[in-house]
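Case study 2.
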Amino acid sequence: MSRRLRACRIGPPPPPRRRRSGALHIFVALLAGCTTVAPRRGALPSAPAARLAAVQANEEHFHSLRARFGSVAHLGDADRSADGVLLVVKPDRFRLRLMLPIGFTVFDYLCVGDQTWVSLPLAGEQEQAHVEQFAPFSRQDLGQAFLRGRYAFPGVCDAAPAPNDQVWVTCRDGDVLRRTILIGSDGIVEEATYGDGEQRLLIRYADYRSVDGASLPFRITLEYPQRRQSVDIAIDRYEVNPTLSDDLFHPVAGSSQGG
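Prediction:
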């Protein structure tokens, strides 16, 4: 019997999640088929430089990615829940889309190169004017989390031993600290991004699983200490190296263009 398992949902769908106060509950069903999930890989190398190299090599395994996820954004005293789809094509394209059960898109965040477009098709004028409430992240943040490469490892990165069989990585541009990375035996545990000497963003990763030859985290948390905002992401399904056409990365009419 093959050691691989087919991670498919059989039977009626589970009941919808309960709305939190002031939350927007969105259900997405865009991905068809099943993801092949293999048993977890062995531990990463113990030597700091070798562990960092292994993590970077694993990330080079995929050039495109499609993921279905559920998320909860914590914005001050309000929570907003959503399900969605993420599309990634390295080195510089990704799209984050949230939809209603009947198929209407309620949020669309597109990045191509250095350009971004944001659309809230069903939002009123007041909500359109405060789009950052629906997207408490930036193009740089999502590039770090999903495009990886130079976004995740800026400047020159050095690895050193850390307690509990972990590895501590610091990335600098000259004397300027850009990022710190803590790597456990399964993969990256957390990454901290710095701006003007202060921690600007903290990303945590957990629940690593092997998917089509790549080790990927199924739980991701983005935290903004200075803004008291965070986003919890639970991955439901990955597709590694799918064919994603250029048409999937065209901005929709009425999108607001950013930098």
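Residues 1-40 have pLDDT under 50 and may be disordered.
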